Each structure stands twice: as structure tokens, then as C-alpha cells.
Amino acid sequence: MKDYIIVGAGLSGTCLAYRLEKSGRSFVVFDDGSQEASKVAGGFMNPVILKRFTLAWKADEHLEAAYAFYSDMERHLEKQFLSPLEVYRRFSSVEEQNNWFAAADKPRLAPFLDTKLVPQVNDHVPGRFSFGRVLKTSRIDPRYLLDSYAEHLEEKGWFKNDSFEYDELQVSASGVSYKGIDAKNVIFCEGFGLQKNPFFNYLPLRGNKGEYIIIKAPKLDLEVGVKSSIFIFPAGGDHYAVGATYSNTDKTPEPTTEAREELVEKLKDLLDVEFEVVDQVAGLRPSTIDRRPLVGRHPEHEHLYTCNGFGSRGILIAPSISKELVDFVETGKSLDPETDISRFTKKWFKKSQGFAFPGS
Ligand SMILES: Cc1cc2nc3c(=O)[nH]c(=O)nc-3n(C[C@H](O)[C@H](O)[C@H](O)COP(=O)(O)OP(=O)(O)OC[C@H]3O[C@@H](n4cnc5c(N)ncnc54)[C@H](O)[C@@H]3O)c2cc1C
């Protein structure tokens, strides 16, 4: 009898599995590679929304937890996937510069916005106005992290490179059974793949497609990340990643010509150096209607859980949110009402079951 079956080894499933491993729980993880959001993510741990200069949801708390969590994972796996990355915002007007200073006056943003602006960050990134530095930023290499942990689990025999077939799951009052594996609980972490999950697909997961291009620019020599209408950061050697796009309408997994053209056009506005597009990646962010995660227990099946809805901030929030769910299952500690899926039980679950509301 295992303690858990985890479905999905993106950031959500990986962070959960690592927490459970550290607390001595037994589990098996299934992943079929059908979603790519975590692997193609930029990997930034940036607490500030750089469009509006506001703090992302609870970002100060999440940042501290994420840094400690990934550092601990690095030590455990003896791999390095976390590195500091300086990030600058290029201003396009005096008004934006003023907004930066106004934001830097706010107590929760002050630790993250440098008020000493710099006139230039690189010879080939021209700017009519200054650049503002976001402090305390770092980056993880998500693909390397996920592959390293999957390899570690494979060595222990705790990883199955396989699709989880929902109709093979048997749920009883005491636990679950799946193709000969008995477990106390299942945690579903399929990202946008949750849409195919008959137990949880009542949840309002929207999905938002994001794409990056990888360029080669031998003369650029940029060592920091720069955000204007797009973001560019070093990706090793003379390669750089440029993105990301946001689309609420296209739910296909493949890279598109439209996104490549959009990014190339914006990049021409940012750089005055030659570049060549050498690769392109795409993924579906598991975004939700209220921009909060989807965490908790199924309304009817007490051994089924989900940990999803990380939207565009999975790197930053997965360590804290996985802890919240593990504490909830293991110790009964209440979930944050903002993340608890019970906020959708009445309207979304009951409606999906054909429940007729009085007066409706
Ligand atoms: C282009 C792009 C850039 C981004 N950049 C950043 C960033 O810089 N910083 C940041 O914080 N966030 C970023 N994000 C957001 C972040 O990637 C997501 O929030 C996060 O990856 C979601 O993780 P997840 O584990 O919930 O989902 P996913 O990454 O989608 O993982 C789900 C996993 O479940 C598996 N799966 C699904 N169904 C099944 C099944 N039936 N059986 C077995 N396995 C299954 C899939 O193969 C997949 O591995 C970015 C996203 C995109 C698309």
C-alpha cells in the first residue's frame, strides 16, 4: 500500500513528490509528457508584475519559500539548477519612470525595486529612457530540475513514464486502487491536462498558451534579463530566450508562426543587433478564472486531491502551495480559502452534477 499516487510531474507534481519524499511518505508518480508548461517556462522567480509595477499575489512570502525549497532540492540531488539573474525593466516614457518610483515607495514593493536607475545595460539594447533593476531575482532551469528529479525517482522505482487512465481508477471508502497499485490517496497535478480528468474537470481551468523563441545573436553579449514589451534573457553561449506570448484562445500545444512573428517584431524594437531564430517552444499555463491556484479535496471522494491552477507563476508558488496541500492532507491544517477548490463546489461542481439550485 502506497501513501500516494501522484499524476503529473510538472512543477506541481515534482514539488509535492519532493515534499513527500522528505517526510518519508511512499508514492509513485505517473507522467506521460502530454503537457509542457513547466519544461518550457522561463524559470523566473520574480516577485514583481513588470507591466504595472505591482507585487504578484503573496510574492514576498512565496519567494522566500521557493528559494529555500529549490536550494534544498539542489543539495539533495547534488545538481545545480538555481542561479541569480539580474533583471531590468526598460522604461518607454517618463511617466513609467515616475510610476516605478511611486511603486518603490510602497512598503511591500520597496525591497524589490531599485531606485537607482541605470542609463544603459548593454550596447545593443538602446533605450531613450532609463532602466530600473528588480532586486532579489533569480532563475531556475526548469527542464533540468524536472529531468533531474524524474531521474532520481526512476532510480528508486517511484516513477512511471506512462499515461494515467482515469477509467482504471477504483475509488473506495478506504483508498484507491489503480492497475494493481493500492494507495491511500491520489493527487492530480496534470496542469492544463486536468480538463481530461473526469473527477476534477468541473473546475474552471482556462488555460493560457505561452510561447518563447530561442535566438542566436553572437554580437549581443547580454548577461542580464531585460523586460520591455517582451522579455529577453541569456540561454547559454550566444543563445537567448525571448518571450513570452499570452493567448487565451489557442489551446493547441504546438508553436505557432503568429507567435514567432509577434516576438520577432517586438525584438527588433528592443535590440539593434542581428539575430537568428533557432528554436521555438510552447506550453499551456494552467490559468484559472480568479487567478488563484486550485488546491484541495474532491467534494465527494475524500481520497482524491488536486494541486493545479498555477497560471503564470508556477516556479514561484509551487513550493508554498505544495506545502499547503501536504499539510492539509497529513495534518488537517486548513487550506487558504483563496486557493481551496471548495470555493467552486457550489456553483461549479453541483452544477456539473445536474444539481438544480432552488429558484433556478
Ligand atoms: C511559455 C511559458 C513561460 C512561463 N514562464 C514562467 C516563469 O518564468 N516563471 C513562473 O513562475 N512560471 C512561468 N510559467 C508558468 C509555469 O510554467 C506554470 O505555472 C507551471 O508550469 C504549471 O505547472 P503544473 O505542474 O501545474 O503543470 P504542467 O507543467 O502542465 O505539468 C503537468 C504534468 O502532468 C502530466 N500529465 C498530464 N496529464 C497526465 C496523465 N493523464 N497521465 C500522466 N501524466 C499527465 C504532463 O505530462 C505534465 O508533465 C510559464 C509558462 C509558460 C507556458
TrEMBL record:
It comes from the Bacteria. This is Glycine/D-amino acid oxidase. PANTHER family: GLYCINE OXIDASE (PTHR13847:SF289), SARCOSINE DEHYDROGENASE-RELATED (PTHR13847). GO terms for cellular component: cytoplasm. InterPro entries: FAD-dep_OxRdtase, FAD/NAD-bd_sf. GO terms for molecular function: oxidoreductase activity. Residues 3-327 form the FAD dependent oxidoreductase domain. The keyword Oxidoreductase applies. The keyword Transmembrane helix does not apply. Keywords: Oxidoreductase.
